[in-house]
Amino acid sequence: MDGTTGPDAADAGPGRAPAGRAPESGVAQSGASDGRPEATEALLHEVRALMRRMRSSSIVVAQAHGLQTTQAQVLFALRRLGECRVARLAEKQLVDPSVASRQVAALEKEGLVSRRPDPEDARASLVTLSEQGHAHLAELRRHHMAVFSEALQDWPTERVVRFTEDIEAFTEAIQPYYDYIAHQVSKETASTESAPEQAAKRGDA
Known about the structure:
single chain
């Protein structure tokens, strides 16, 4: 789900809009007389509703395990990324490196993550899940799995598989747009920062 596919994928880098598209306007360059706008709007509505419900559920599950939602998100991100710099974690979480650094510090205090100096850059540190963090994350995953299993118990396996494939295709189709937007926002933010501020961020990397 992290990659891009399709004919436009090769042209879609983080700093370049996908070929033949206009993500800044949110409108694809295609005809609009076949009910497509209404169908797309309905999809957007349902995706937003799903995100709200998932966010609410994530808050409840995280709190049940003594975590804030953002802390749980950091743990899941570290599980995907493995050992990495704070700057890399911030990039994936779409937050400022200073925010990610504070999140990591709080989790380190709880014994859920560990840090060590980056051998390639003495100013930076590498972050990874601790043994306790892996165990805590396993409990979170079991809780989420229990919720999903209960909610989808009446769905045949074939429907679950098909829905999963549709979500994967949707994610791959839309990811280049959000990568492009995130890159543009990052460039605009960097251009307004002073040299000391940028140096401080690099030191947190």
